[in-house]
């Protein structure tokens, strides 16, 4: 199998960022008398954009009617913008994987449901400016994953066909995104979710460690 580009999810795939999400979420929910919530709970709150994270946290706190959503969402965005690098680090093996892909002249891109400005901040802080060929975060007015639109935008910028893309992520949302775009889709077991979810999401392959991805490039 020869792939010309790998598209990476960010949270739970490239970056171990759960503590930044929990920190910002707990500070937000505290305003309304909810939380704190566990790391495991945040692994399931996260993955489908900041708005859905806030909805899930509010519901878990008891605000099932989401009466506080607008205020909580604005507050979360403000807190997270200031703390998106809180205890964030690359997963073990990720820097080596990225270096190996670059040595193979494979393009690397990021597609995240994290807000775009924070996506860029995390990527540039962890890996350096212009290290990735394309970086796409969540932008207002554009559909988030599992819509394949972000993959299509990256594909167009790289000038590649769907059969030349590999998509790596850690959630069913990621698997559905990659499949909808026609990419070969690989599930990452070191992230936020488990094997069953990745299988049910339609993963073409599942790996336990980052460097295993090289079998498919």
* Mean pLDDT across every amino acid position: 97
Cα distance spanning the termini: 6 Å
N-to-C SSE series? EEHHHHEHEHEHEHEHE
How many beta-strand runs? Answer: 8
**How many separate helices?**
9
| Low-pLDDT segments, ≥5 res | none
With strands numbered from the N-terminus, the spatial order across the biggest sheet is 5-4-1-6-7-8
Return Rg in Å: 17 Å
Structure, explained:
The chain has about 220 residues and is of the alpha/beta class. Helix content is about 45%, strand content about 15%. The protein contains nine helices and eight strands. It has a six-stranded parallel sheet with strand order 5-4-1-6-7-8, with helices on both faces. The protein has a two-stranded antiparallel sheet with strand order 2-3. It is globular.
Please give a handful of descriptors for the protein shown.
globular, 9 helices, 217 residues, alpha/beta, two-stranded antiparallel sheet, 44% helix
Task: Outline the secondary-structure elements.
Layout: E1 5-8, E2 15-16, H1 18-30, H2 39-45, H3 50-61, H4 69-83, E3 89-90, H5 94-103, E4 107-115, H6 116-127, E5 134-138, H7 149-158, E6 165-169, H8 172-181, E7 184-188, H9 195-200, E8 205-207
Parallel strand pairs: 1-4, 1-6, 4-5, 6-7, 7-8
Antiparallel strand pairs: 2-3
Helix pairs in contact: 1-4, 3-4
């Amino acid at each position: 199998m020869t792939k010309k580009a790998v598209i990476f999810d960010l949270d739970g795939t490239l970056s171990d960022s759960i503590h930044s999400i929990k920190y910002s979420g707990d500070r937000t929910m505290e305003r309304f008398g909810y939380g704190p919530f566990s790391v495991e709970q945040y692994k399931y709150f996260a993955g489908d954009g900041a708005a859905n994270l806030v909805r899930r946290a509010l519901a878990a706190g008891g605000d099932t009617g989401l009466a506080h959503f607008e205020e909580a969402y604005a507050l979360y965005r403000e807190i997270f913008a200031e703390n998106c690098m809180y205890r964030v680090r690359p997963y073990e093996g990720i820097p080596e994987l990225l270096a190996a892909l670059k040595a193979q002249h494979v393009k690397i891109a990021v597609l995240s449901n994290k807000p775009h400005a924070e996506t860029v901040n995390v990527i540039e802080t962890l890996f350096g400016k212009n290290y990735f060929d394309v970086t796409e975060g969540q932008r207002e007015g554009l559909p988030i994953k599992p819509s394949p639109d972000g993959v299509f935008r990256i594909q167009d910028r790289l000038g590649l066909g769907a059969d030349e893309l590999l998509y790596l992520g850690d959630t069913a949302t990621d698997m559905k995104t990659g499949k909808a775009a026609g990419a070969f889709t690989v599930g990452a077991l070191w992230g936020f979710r488990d094997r069953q979810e990745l299988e049910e999401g339609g993963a073409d392959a599942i790996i336990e460690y980052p460097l295993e991805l090289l079998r498919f490039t």
